[in-house]
Amino acid sequence: MTPPTLDQVLSGASALPTLPEVAHYIITSVDDDTSNADELVTLLNTDPAIVARILSVANSSVFGLSSRVDSMREAILVLGLEEIRSITLATAVVDRFDMKSANFDPRMLWRHSIGVATCARIIAESNQFNAELAFTAGLLHDIGQLLLFAVAPKHFEEVLMRRQRLDEPIIAAEHAVFGFDHAVAGGELMKNWRLPAEIAEGILGHHDPEQGEFGEMGDLIHVAEVLSHALDLGELPNNRVPDLSDLACARMGIEWPAFSGKFAEIEARYDEILHALTLQQ
Amino acid sequence: MKNRSICLAPGRLKPGMLTAAPILVRQGEELLPANCTLDDAMIDSIRRRAIHCVRVNVSDERDQAEIARDIATEEKRLNYIFRGESSEARAELLKAMCQFRTWQLQ
Q1: Which long-range contacts (CB under 8 A, 24 or more apart) does B57-63 make?
Q2: Is the pTM of this model over 0.90?
Q3: How many domains is chain B partitioned into structurally?
Q4: Segment (H or E) for A199
């Protein structure tokens, strides 16, 4: 059977569950100075599954506060807006995209994505970039893999088997099977979903930031992805650190001896969010 | 018995842990000094601020031979995950990772 073209994959995007309204609000209001906690609380309260998850996180041993948190407003006061946005977004995507097969475990993909999101946030903080946008782009950077799996599961399984058999990068296996890769599929999907352009650029550029105009976010997500593999976040079986673009590192001003001072913090923050989402291995 | 310091997210702190370095809040002000034994109130106070990582001392019962074995295992893993050709930046990252893991395990 012939694999679908990129256009056919994108037109099959309805096979993916839609993001809840609150996740859309979080993603699209990152740059909006007029967005506020009241609006977020109102939207959060319309999604009982997310409210339950946030209250359970706020009252869990991970945060272990002495007094009980009973409302979204209190949760924001206690955990902070940044933490609430991260947990909400991660919960929304992890819970919605829970597809699996014998060779594909979305939990493993989410552990990796949270690793990349954490690295992206800390690199962004160090470079005075928008850290929340970087976290979101990192979280969604491999959404193209979910799209390929949802639309063409048999062909995507062939990609996974080929990658394992030949120990080749997933991008190479996808090109061999589909003729395009998950970065292009994911980036185009973000454009169709009308998410901020920087998120699409981060996704489009994360495997090859030198190929095209993907701006700072393309460089950032590329570096974050490589760093996440290097720190072995998610402990993927057959983990292999992708090649790292000298140009992207130079453009970002990343110098590893200096930035290594952040490695321990990245591991601690990754561990905390994984625990909060009960995604630990 | 010797100690080594590890970095923990606030949610992982437990009463009785000893801080390995001063805990600073965002403005650079010191919240708690180094060598401070944490209690419930202090941990609560850390968790209610935007502090992401706290360095604490933990006891380390490993002898030198065990430490060397741990470091060798980690180096082997790093060489495995960094298999294949490297750009200059990737080679530099590997070097930084080796130094970080060695420092972490000593």
Answers
A1: B57/B3, B57/B4, B57/B5, B57/B17, B57/B18, B57/B19, B57/B20, B58/B3, B58/B4, B58/B5, B58/B6, B58/B17, B59/B1, B59/B2, B59/B3, B60/B1, B60/B2, B60/B3, B60/B4, B61/B1
A2: no
A3: 2
A4: helix A197-205
CATH numbers and ranges of domains, chain A: 18-96 (no CATH), 101-281 (1.10.3210.10)
ipTM score of complex: 0.87
Same domain membership, residue B44 and residue B75: no
Dist. CA B59–CA B63, nearest whole Å: 12
pLDDT tens across B1-54, in order? 688 889 998 888 889 999 999 998 877 889 999 999 999 889 888 877 778 889
| Residue A236 contacts B where some CB pair is shorter than 8 Å | no
Which residue in chain A is spatially nearest to B91 when comparing CA positions? A244
Are residues B71 and B40 both part of a single domain?
no
**Partner residue opposite A244 with nearest CB, options B43, B83, B87:** B87
Contacts of B87 in chain A (CB under 8 A): 243-246
